[in-house]
Amino acid sequence: MSSKLHQDLYVGVIVIGVSIFLFVKTQGLIEEAARYPQGLLVLFTLFGIFIILKGIKKTKLLREGEELKYDGDEAPLNMKLLKSPLITVAIVVVYVWLLSFIGFFPATILFMASYLGYMQVRSWKAYAFTIVGLNLFIYLVFVMQLNVQLPAGIFFE
């Protein structure tokens, strides 16, 4: 008997773990503001439970020696398949970390430039229009119209 677990079990546990973590984070919000994200997180948790239930069935089939058929884009997880999402997550983590040091706009410029570079965008026009357009839109809508205080960073406080 194989001790192999289907990947859906891991995915379901991660989904439920993230849901619980974020649900706990919503406890600091006022009740009216927390209600909607908490509802979405409960729904997200239910989806995680469904994924785990399907993963249990698939694990049982794997242990019985049956070959699983994957539909559409679904495929067994491997490092080749996970490489792009993990690099994207790493870029986002660095971006969030930079927000507190250099502020929103410089960090966003670096984030967009690095992500566009990772996605192999070669046109300087695409870089310019995307970076300038996004920052201009955020400045006009959030800073000017909505008076949102964006992170200034410890260097610019």
Question: If you had to describe this structure to a student in words, what would you say it looks like?
Answer:
By secondary structure, this protein is mainly α. It has helices at residues 7-25, 31-63, 79-102, 104-118, 124-145. The chain is extended. The chain starts with 6 loop residues before the first helix and ends in a 12-residue tail after the last helix.
Please identify the structural class as seen in this structure: mainly alpha
Low-confidence stretches: none
**End-to-end distance:** 61 Å
**Judging from the principal axes of the Cα atoms, what is the shape?**
extended
Top keywords for this entry?
157 residues; mainly alpha; 72% helix
Task: Give the helices and strands, then pairings.
Blueprint: H1 7-25, H2 31-63, H3 79-102, H4 104-118, H5 124-145
Short description:
This protein has 5 helices and no strands. It is mainly α and 157 residues long.
